[in-house]
Amino acid sequence: MQSRWLSPTEKHIMSKNDDQGRPPPPKTTTPAVREEERFPDPIEALTSGLGDDPALGDLIAFRQSRPDLKEAARMSRQFNNEAHRVAYAVGGHPQATTVASGLGLAALLFDSLVSVWPVDSLDEVDAKLALARARGPFGTDQEADYVASLEPATARRIRLMRAAFHVGELTVPPAPPAPSLDDRNLAAWPRLRYDLRDLLPLRGGQPVLTIAPESWIAFARSGPDFGGLRDRIVRMLATAERLFELARANEDGKSRELRLAAEGAQMLAYLTACQAMVWQARSKADLDVKRDVARIINDRACRPDPLHQQAAVRHIVDEAIWVHRRLGLSEPALFTPDWTEIV
Question: Cα dihedral sign for 93, 98, 102, 104?
Answer without folding.
Answer: positive
